[in-house]
Amino acid sequence: MSVIENEAPVRDTGEVVLSLTGINKRFGAVQALTDVELTVLAGEVVALVGDNGAGKSTLVKTIAGVYQPDAGVIEFAGAPVTVAGPAGAQQLGIATVFQDLALCDNLDVVANLFLGKEHHLGPVLNEVTMEREAWRLLRSLSAKIPSVRIPVAGLSGGQRQTVAIARSLVGSPKVVLLDEPTAALGVAQTAEVLNLVERLRNQGLAVIMVSHNMADVQAVSDRIVVLRLGRNAAEFRTEEATTDQLVAAITGASDNVVAQRAARRAAHPEASQ
Amino acid sequence: MTDQLTDPPTPAVDAADERLVRVVSPADYLRQLGGRLRGGDLGMLPVIFGLVAICAFFYSREPTFLSSRSLVTMTLYAAPLGVIALGIVLVLLLGEIDLSVGTVSGFTSATTAVMFVSHGQSLALSILVAIALGALIGGGYAVLFVWVGVPSFVFTLAGLLAFEGALYWVLGDQGTINLPRDSGLPEFTRQKFLSDAQGYALVAVVVAVYVGSRLWAIRQKRAAGLTPPNLLGVVIKAAALAIGLGWLTYYLGIDRGWGYLPVLFAGLVVLMDLLLRRTRWGRYVYAVGGNEEAARRAGIRVGMVYGSVFVLCSTFAALGGVLVAGQLTTVSQSSGTTDTNLTAIAAAVIGGTSLFGGRGSAYSALLGILVLQAIRTGLNLMNVDSDVRLIVTGAVLLLAVAIDSVARRARSSSGRG
Ligand SMILES: Nc1ncnc2c1ncn2[C@@H]1O[C@H](COP(=O)(O)OP(=O)(O)OP(=O)(O)O)[C@@H](O)[C@H]1O
Ligand SMILES: [Mg+2]
Q1: Which of A22, A59, A267, B193 maximizes the CB count within 10 A of its CB?
Q2: Which residue range(s) make up the domain with A204?
Q3: If you ran DSSP here, which 8-state letter would residue B146 be given?
């Protein structure tokens, strides 16, 4: 029996693909990120959660090369790197689905999917192979898109999001960043994206997923990193975290779970017996 | 297994969605066209319609308007400004503007004239220097835009003034320089015409290349399991192309035929169209014009795209200026300063290139300049003064921009971006 067909996935965990330490980012008067740390292993899904404005998207964009951190070290596969720009991140193998999707409304689906990574024969675009590959990617996501030759502006919000997700799969990324990938999706498509995350993990990719949906986070992630007001607030192994603990860490009802439990014990000593 | 044979034929992967409106019969095609128009996806239809209306109007007033002689003259006069408008199309596709193409064309053509006439340099060198100067000016604009971050409106306005000054400076106290009529440039722009045989041969080559490329596309798509373009449609379009161009060649041939100049212009239009639609560079131009931030995040070197377009625009302006000089056989202090600028910009917009970026085609330079030249020629034939011509041109430009704006609104409400 081939290992691939076995239900138990081949995982290449343990090897650190991406690690960030002491990341600071400031926008004018707003300190969006303060000494943020984050590590992702190969074959691991890390969920990044936090309230609105916690700095999740800023962190994602910093990894994707859109923003340069004011301070901090980004290590990729063990070596410190400077992600000079989005092209640099792509060369490292970092693919990103941005929260605002970053699609060109005037271009069709195929052009958007392959933007910056076009197939070409000499100087000429190879539209046929791109179109065929586009259908393959979209079908693998159960996309409900009638035609790949219509401008993206003519798609529904969820269809646009599917296009953005499909775009992150073009090429062979090592790290996939998903900033609220399921926010606009229907039930079937959400399930499909969660399946996709699972598949990416099984292929040994590192996945960072931002989401506000605790059920989704708990369904697919291995680890949950909580950001609050631009700082690391807490970190859980997914199987050990309860929804209540997560919510408490996100909202800052207490500074961390340990303190919260301690406080509860102190208030009701009989409850812990 | 045989059950595959009993299955209904699976549709091509791109035609599987049942909501997709299938286009099979000509009626389907017309219905789809109607839907596109209502949705604000006008493309070049308004300008084609406008051109026909303008020609019909002037023809009814003055039948010589559509005489072979008049049409040949129109193609000759339209071409140099069309070359300048082609550069404007590129800049508009990025959602930027170049207000200085007129004075850049004047300044560079004056350089050619001074080098060639006053300093006795060879014509080829004089023209090359002018074109290189145009590229250099565009390079300067690119630096200002990409590195310094000055809005294009501002630095090209500065260029508009500065290069008018440079024109005076280059001309010195001569004021006007006449190019000898028997030198190469005036000959090329005024007296060189394709023979009838050459004209028909060119038409045949164009049609053959068109048919060949479509058949190739059909084969490729079929091999990839995608819906191929409709063969009947290809045949109809090829026939229309052959008959249209063939008839035009015949009709222009009654007088002098196709000038070298309009053929050069048409060649540049086709070349730019291919570059825009079929290469990565062209794809990036549309991407940056549509959503600059998305293009940047896709890893496109946005600065290079802006830079290349500003360089091309100024280069086309220089080339157009040289061609105008050859056509008028003279360069003076008024070269490129009067209405060259606005004619070129108006042509691009009238031809259907959006001022909002990301939409348009190289062909809009061709169609737009034809509209403006038709108006100019028609009003001349009717002995109307240039004041009326300016007012009419202004009105047509306003109409074109209004159509663009209305279409943009229709697009955003019907989901065509
Ligand atoms: N380009 C920018 N310029 C100025 N401030 C910014 C910019 N981007 C983000 N910020 C600020 O940084 C902080 C973090 O924003 P960020 O977008 O990272 O939040 P988020 O965690 O993704 O929130 P949400 O859940 O709403 O997406 C916010 O206070 C925001 O105002
Ligand atoms: Mg966000």
Answers
A1: A59
A2: 16-241
A3: I
Q: Report the CATH number at residue A226.
A: 3.40.50.300
Same domain assignment for residues A231 and A249: no
User: What residues have CB less than 8 Å from B159, skipping those under 6 apart?
Assistant: B98, B99, B100, B103, B104, B137, B141
Which residues are within 8 A (CB) of B346 and not within 5 positions of it... i.e. 6 or more apart?
Answer: B368, B372, B393, B396, B397, B400
Whose Cα sits closest to atom 30 in ligand 1?
Answer: A53
Sheet with A45-49, strands from edge to edge, namely A94-97, A175-179, A206-210, A45-49, A223-228, A231-237
Structural tokens at position B321: 């200026």
Instruction: Establish if A171 touches chain B: CB-CB under 8 angstroms.
Output: no
Tally the domains of chain A: 2
Q: Per the domain annotation, does A5 fall within a domain?
A: no
Q: B370-416: per-residue pLDDT in tens? A: 999 999 999 989 888 878 888 888 888 888 888 878 877 777 665 55
Buried b (16+ CB within 10 A) or exposed e, A238-260: beebeeebbebbbeeebebbeeb
Cα B75 to the center of its chain, rounded Å = 14
Nearest CA to ligand 1 atom 5: A27
- A237 and A253 fall within a common domain: no
Q: Are residues A202 and A256 in the same domain?
A: no
Test the A interface: residue of B280, B354, B361, B412 with most A CBs within 10 Å: B280
Residues 6+ apart with CB under 8 A from A204: A10, A11, A12, A42, A43
Contacts of A129 in chain B (CB under 8 A): 224
Contacts of B376 (CB under 8 A, 6+ apart): B77, B389, B393
A181 and A228, same domain (yes or no)? yes
Single-letter code of the amino acid located at B275: L
Residue B361 CA: distances (Å) to CA of B83, B180, B203, B272: 14, 37, 22, 9
**Phi/psi at B100 (nearest 5 deg)?**
-105, 5
Residue A262 domain-assigned (yes or no): yes
Beta-carbon-side half-sphere exposure of residue A132 (alpha carbons within 13 Å): 13
Residues in Cβ contact with B328 at an 8 Å cutoff, skipping those fewer than 6 apart: none
Give residue B291 CA to ligand 2 midpoint distance, Å.
20
A76 and A179 share a domain? yes
Q: Where do the domains of chain B lie?
A: 48-192+259-409
CB < 8 Å & 24+ apart, contacts of B16-20: B17/A144, B17/A145, B17/A146, B17/A147, B19/A146, B20/A146, B20/A147
pLDDT digit string (tens) for A216-259?
Answer: 999 999 999 999 999 999 899 998 888 888 888 888 875 555 55
- End-to-end Cα spacing for chain B: 47
DSSP 3-state of B256 = coil
Task: Answer whether residue A101 is part of any domain.
Answer: yes
CATH number of B48-192+259-409: 1.10.3470
Nearest CA in chain B to A145: B17
Q: Is residue A3 part of a domain?
A: no
Residues in chain A: 273
Tens of pLDDT, residues A57-108: 999 999 999 999 999 999 998 899 988 889 999 999 999 999 998 999 999 9
